Every structure is written in structure tokens, then in C-alpha cells.
UniProtKB/TrEMBL annotation:
Residues 286-331 are annotated as: Disordered. TPR repeats lie at residues 160-193. It is found in: Cell envelope. SMART domains: TPR. It comes from Achromobacter mucicolens. The lineage of its organism: Bacteria, Pseudomonadati, Pseudomonadota, Betaproteobacteria, Burkholderiales. It comes from the Bacteria. This is C-type cytochrome biogenesis protein CcmI. SUPFAM superfamilies: TPR-like. Its main location: other. Residues 337-430 form the Cytochrome c-type biogenesis protein H Ig-like domain. Keywords: Cytochrome c-type biogenesis, Repeat, TPR repeat.
Length: 444
């Protein structure tokens, strides 16, 4: 708003500088020209009158009156040149006109703007640059809900589903150490759950930037011992094997996982890409402890598959249902293509975190489905369904119409930060295909 009025003030000053100085310097015409020049001007006018009479443009009577007026004007002008009071009057008139313009121009500008312009335009522009109120409220609601859940669990620590939901929520916020502690609480209440052990291993890996340690290796081993076909554990085991240079062991785990997945699933296609890369490494002998993660992996921090906060197709191509939900037969499904607007692509680093999520249009603002990946993975197809829910009690099938969002975050935090990129689709039904989700807005 201040900038607008400074511009208006500058324009008014420029206008007055153009109009006022000439008035202050103005002298009567008789003072700026010689008597001969004045006479020459009127003689030219009389000559024009004679031509008009000869051409028939003027009647003799009209010619006589016009000639008489010319002579009277000539005498008055010559008299003014010789009268000091007339010169002073002319100067006073110029000064008066300058004063009037100095006051009248700004007042007229304000009155005209109030009548014809849009006094709220600056405020509208300022509001349009502010963060979207709905998105801010949603992020605040999410943080408040997570904090409220944590407080409730501290008071009632024997709620396994509550701890599991809290762990997944912490991973959404990038708080991996807190997620590890929450998963450990789940295992305290329901020991030996293979899916939870795999999720714990994933959180441990994320906290260590994708580097396996004794705890994550042990969690994967326990998960596969309890369930040799646990999808995420197989994906993590393959990644760990490839990192230690054992491409054959990686292929064993990933080929077993591929046999468990529907052939037309996106996760199956991702695993197939991983298998192809592992075979190439095995053939060339390049696999080693410092080997890059599989081609479909997002980075070292998510090479084992994206955290359980983002179930569904993960970085290693694994769909991870929640332990209490089992293998979901989702009735709601949102599918489409996610990308970053071409004009903003240069502002994004390949390692920036990307969240794709769905929130109810009404009621709670907690996400009912969420995926997590990296900017390097875009553009790519995405699918949100009940298997990507953060809680079995809050799923896409139960949400009705939703708001589908994409957020590109440098901090890895799901809450919007200045400089993040956003994109939103509103009023999306529970079953939609061909969605075009574009990160095209910068969070101010």
C-alpha cells in the first residue's frame, strides 16, 4: 500500500513540475516580442481576412467587423507592453494560476481515484501475495492435531493404533527420531509385527540419511523372519544388500517382491527398474558399499523406500498398508500426473522433498492420504487410495470430496515454509483419474 501511494505522489510532483514553472516565468506576450513582431502578426491576420473576402468566405460586412476587431486588439497589445502595471498583473496572474494548480491537481486526482478507481486494489494485491489462508489453517490444524495426539498418548500410553498414527505423522513432518520412538512404543504393545518392524527400519534409515546401521538391519531381519513376504522389508533388504555390494542378494529380495505385486501396479514397475539396475551392477561388477541406490530411489535418505508416512508406491516400489488395516481393498482412488511448473523448475533442487496429499474439504484438515518423494522423481504418475492413509480411521473412502495438494519443500517439512512450491486441486471426488497436479505457486 505504501509503495502505491509513493508512486502516486511521484507522478503528482512530476505533473506539477511540468505545469508550474512555466506559469511562474510567464510574462505578457508584448514583453517577449518586439512591437514589429506584434504588428507583423496582425498584418498577417488582416491579409488572411482579405483572402477570405476575395474567395467569398466572408461577406463585406463580416470582413469589416473582423478587421475592426483586429485593429482594436493590436492597439491593446501595444498598450500592455508599455504599461508596467499590466506586466505586473500578468506575473500575478501566472503566480495565482500556479498556486491554484498546486492545490487543484492533487485534490482532483484523489477525488477522481475515489470515484472511478479501486481504492482497495492495493489491499487486494497484498492479500493475493499472502499465503493461502486455507493452506495455512490446514498446516496449523495438522500440527495441533499431532500435538494433541502426542499429549493423549502420554496420558494413555497403551494405544497401539494411536502410537502408530503418531509415528506416521512425525515422519510426515520429517521428525524421524520421534517417529522411531513412536514405532518402538507400538512394538512394545504389539511385539514382532512385521509391518511395524519394516516401518521402524525405514524411519531409522531416514534419520541416518539412508545409511544402514545395526538397529535398522536387525529390524528388517526380524520383519522377514516373522513374514518372509513383507513388502517393505523385502525392498529394504534389497537396498541394504546392494549397498554392501551383494547384487545377487538384492536381486533375490527384489524378485521375490516383484512376484507379490500386481503386474500392472506402479510399484511393480519401480521394482522392475531396480532389478534391471542391480543386474547391470552385477554384470559390470560396480556394486559396492558406496553404490548409488536403485534408479527409482529418491536419495540416500530414502533409498530404502519412503517413510511409512507415505505408504503406497515408495522409493523402492513398495506399498505399505497400516498394520491394523491389512491389505486395503480401496474403494476410493485418485490418480493423475504430478509435476513442477516449467517456470519454477529452476528454483527446485533435485533433493527437495515432495508431498502429495489429500485433505477433506470440510471438517478435520488432517491428510487422509499422503505420498512422499523427491523433486528429482517429477514428473511422475501418482495414486492416492486407502493404502496411503495415515490412519485406518481416516481414509480417503471416508472423506467425501477432498482437496489434493502438492508441496515441494526444501526443509522436508510438510508444513508450508516461505519459498516452498504449492499446487492445489479442490472439490475432487473420491474416485478421479487423469488429475493434473502442478506445483505452480511460491509460498511467500
Amino acid at each position: 500500500m505504501t509503495t502505491l501511494w509513493l508512486i502516486v505522489l511521484a507522478l503528482l510532483l512530476a505533473t506539477l513540475l511540468c505545469l508550474v514553472p512555466p506559469l511562474l516565468r510567464r510574462t505578457p506576450a508584448a514583453e517577449t516580442a518586439s512591437d514589429a513582431s506584434v504588428r507583423a502578426f496582425y498584418l498577417a491576420q488582416r491579409e488572411q481576412l482579405r483572402r477570405d473576402l476575395a474567395n467569398g468566405a466572408l461577406t463585406p460586412q463580416a470582413h469589416a467587423r473582423a478587421d475592426e476587431e483586429l485593429q482594436r486588439d493590436l492597439l491593446q497589445d501595444l498598450a500592455m507592453r508599455r504599461d508596467p502595471r499590466a506586466r505586473l498583473g500578468g506575473q500575478r496572474a501566472g503566480l495565482a494560476a500556479a498556486c491554484v494548480l498546486t492545490v487543484a491537481v492533487p485534490v482532483a486526482a484523489v477525488l477522481l481515484y475515489g470515484q472511478l478507481g479501486n481504492p482497495r486494489a492495493a489491499a487486494t494485491v497484498a492479500l493475493s501475495q499472502a499465503p493461502e489462508p486455507h493452506a495455512q489453517a490446514a498446516d496449523n490444524d495438522m500440527a495441533l492435531a499431532i500435538n494433541a495426539l502426542a499429549q493423549r498418548l502420554r496420558a494413555s500410553p497403551d494405544d497401539a493404533d494411536g502410537w502408530y498414527m503418531l509415528a506416521r505423522s512425525y515422519e510426515t513432518l520429517g521428525r524421524y527420531n520421534d517417529a522411531v520412538a513412536a514405532y518402538q512404543e507400538v512394538l512394545r504393545l504389539v511385539p514382532g509385527q512385521p509391518a511395524v518392524l519394516a516401518d521402524l527400519a525405514d524411519a531409522l534409515l531416514s534419520a541416518r540419511q539412508g545409511q544402514p546401521d545395526e538397529a535398522s538391519i536387525a529390524a528388517v531381519a526380524q520383519a522377514l523372519q516373522a513374514d518372509p513376504d513383507q513388502p517393505k522389508a523385502l525392498a529394504l533388504a534389497g537396498m541394504m544388500a546392494l549397498r554392501r555390494g551383494d547384487a545377487a542378494d538384492a536381486l533375490t529380495h527384489w524378485e521375490r517382491l516383484r512376484a507379490l505385486l500386481p503386474p500392472d501396479a506402479e510399484a511393480a514397475r519401480q521394482i522392475q527398474t531396480n532389478i534391471a539396475q542391480a543386474r547391470a551392477m552385477a554384470a559390470s561388477g560396480t556394486a559396492g558399499g558406496a553404490a548409488a541406490p536403485p534408479a527409482s530411489g529418491n536419495s540416500a535418505s530414502t533409498a530404502a523406500g519412503q517413510p511409512a508416512t507415505a505408504p503406497g508406491p515408495t522409493a523402492s516400489g513398495v506399498a505399505t498398508p497400516s498394520p491394523s488395516a491389512g491389505a486395503s481393498t480401496a474403494t476410493a482412488r485418485l490418480a493423475g500426473q504430478a509435476r513442477i511448473a516449467d517456470a519454477l523448475r529452476d528454483q527446485v533442487r533435485p533433493t527437495d522433498t515432495v508431498f502429495i496429499l489429500a485433505r477433506p474439504m470440510t471438517g478435520s484438515r488432517m491428510p487422509v492420504a499422503i505420498l512422499k518423494m523427491q523433486a528429482a522423481d517429477l514428473p511422475r504418475a501418482f495414486v492416492l487410495d486407502d493404502s496411503t492413509a495415515m490412519s485406518p480411521d481416516a481414509t480417503l473412502s471416508k472423506a467425501g470430496k477432498v482437496r489434493v495438494e502438492i508441496r515441494v519443500s526444501r526443509s522436508g517439512n510438510a508444513a508450508a515454509q516461505p519459498g516452498d512450491l504449492n499446487g492445489v486441486l479442490t472439490d475432487v471426488g473420491p474416485r478421479a483419474d487423469g488429475l493434473a497436479l502442478v506445483a505452480d505457486t511460491v509460498v511467500p
